[in-house]
Structure formats: C-alpha cells, structure tokens
Write a structure and sequence with these properties.
Strand order of the largest sheet: 1-3-2
CATH class of the largest domain: Mainly Alpha
Radius of gyration: 23 Å
Shape: flat
Structural class: mainly alpha
Organism: Paraburkholderia rhynchosiae
Number of strands: 6
Protein name: ArsR family transcriptional regulator
Strand content: 5-15%
Oligomer: single chain
CATH superfamily of the largest domain: Winged helix-like DNA-binding domain superfamily/Winged helix DNA-binding domain
Length: 269
C-alpha cells in the first residue's frame, strides 16, 4: 500500500480542473503564483492553494529567483511516474480486490439470495458514476460562464451537423427536456450571442435554433484548455479496446432501459 501512495496522490490531485490547467501552463516553464493566477483569472490565494496540492502530490516543485520570488515548475519525475501508471493501467491484471460496493453487494445478496447481485451492483455503480458525470458537466459549463443544460443544448446542436440548427421539438429527444426548459435555455444563449432563432422554412409558424460560430469556440475551448471532468479522466485511463467494450455494453443496457420505459409508458396510457 505504501508503494502506491505517490502514484495515488498524482492521480487524485488531477481531479480538479483548475489544477490540470495550472499544470498545462507550467509546460511553458517555471512561473510565479501571481502570473499563473492572472492567466487563469483566479485569485492569488486560490492559485497558491492549488499549487500547494500539486506540490504535496509531487507534481510541482518551487524555487526562488534572484529577487526572492517563488517560481513553480513541473517535476519531470512526476510526469514519468504518471505515464508509467497509465501504461500499467492498460495492461490486463488479475482480479482486483473488492471495494466498499462489493462488500455492500455481498450483504445485499445474503438478504436476497435468489436475485442476481450483479444487477444490484450495476445500478449502484451507475448511481455513483452519474454523480461524477453531473459534477463534470457543471465544471465544464461553469468554466465558460454557462449552465449545464445550456452546454448540453449546444452539444446537441453541434452533433446535429451542419448547418447546426434544430427545432425545439427536435431538441427534446437528445436533451430529455420540456419545451419550456428548452425555450429558457435558448433565450439565455441568444442573449449571450451563442445561438439565434430563425423562421422554419418548412413550417410558417415554427422556429429553428441555430448555433453561431461563437458557440463552437466555447466547445473547442473546453477541450483545448483540458477542462476535463473526473469521468473523462477516468475513461482515459482505460485501454482503448476496453473503452470500446464498455461503450458497447452501456449502449446495450440503455436500449433495454429505453424499451422498458416505453413499455411502462404504454401500459399507463
């Protein structure tokens, strides 16, 4: 356990988007806390707090220049250890020791021996993962001054393909939102100059929502600044073929869930 501690700290310290941004900035060389704070538009105290976490985890080291100002730089040894751990994560290993959820599931199985404990575990793990995904969405949206629902709406317009426009009704399915909620998001994004409403040429009374170039820049900025959430970082640690397998299994599970929801909805009508 003791041998794992340095690597564990390296990974844990990257859970915060601001700390990942600080490390990205330090790729350019040693810099002072005030300079880093200005570039990230945060207070000096906040920058120092994040830098302290990175220093304790082993990511950065600090030295003073000839004027006595503290300069922070990335430790190459930490980066080497980090990438070595990432490589190890892609190597198939033996069975992992059980975690708290496995213990919880074992207790559940004792109470309900006739049920498949994996069905219980799948639900419990998805619940915990959904919390990570929800937090990641909030962090990514907040980094660009928009709300999570607004970020999802922009993503839905982007994935609709050129000319990146949809009717509010078309947006309902990918967003799983009410028309009122979509209208509210569109109004805010329109005020920010990120979308515009235009008449629907196929429906005299309808409108289309079109994503403007400024909105695409926001989506690009989230990726270029590496403001990735915990869920994204966690997925990147998996080998590509395992990610593909997981994606396929989750799709299968979603299809079954969608079909069951549709069946229940039909029974209620």
């Amino acid at each position: 356990m003791g041998a794992r501690k340095p690597a564990d700290l390296l990974f844990a310290s990257l859970a915060d988007a601001s700390r990942r941004q600080l490390l990205t900035l330090l790729n350019a060389g040693a810099q002072s806390a005030p300079a880093l704070a200005r570039k990230l538009n945060m207070s000096r105290a906040s920058a120092l707090g994040h830098l302290d976490v990175l220093r304790e985890a082993g990511w950065v080291e600090v030295a003073c220049d000839e004027h006595g100002e503290a300069l922070y730089s990335k430790r190459s040894q930490a980066e080497k250890l980090f990438f070595a751990e990432c490589t190890a994560l892609q190597t198939p290993a033996g069975p992992e020791p059980g975690d708290a959820l496995d213990a919880q599931a074992a207790a559940w199985a004792r109470e309900w021996p006739a049920e498949d404990v994996n069905v219980y575990l799948i639900g419990q793990r998805l619940l915990r993962l959904s919390a990570h995904i929800d937090q990641a969405l909030k962090e990514a949206a907040a980094s660009q001054g928009i709300l999570p629902a607004e970020l999802l709406l922009l993503d839905a317009l982007l994935t609709s393909g050129p000319p990146y426009r949809q009717s509010p009704t078309q947006l309902q399915k990918p967003l799983a939102m009410t028309l009122g909620g979509i209208t509210k998001c569109v109004s805010r994004l329109e005020q920010m100059g990120l979308v515009e409403r235009t008449p629907d040429p196929t429906d005299g009374r309808g409108i289309l929502v079109r994503m403007k170039p400024q909105a695409r820049k926001i989506l690009e900025k989230i990726l270029s600044e590496a403001t990735y959430g915990t869920d994204w970082v966690a997925s990147s640690h998996m080998a590509p073929e395992r990610r593909a397998t997981l994606s396929s299994l989750l799709r299968e599970l979603q299809l079954y869930a969608d079909a069951e929801a549709a069946r229940r909805s039909g029974e209620g009508e």
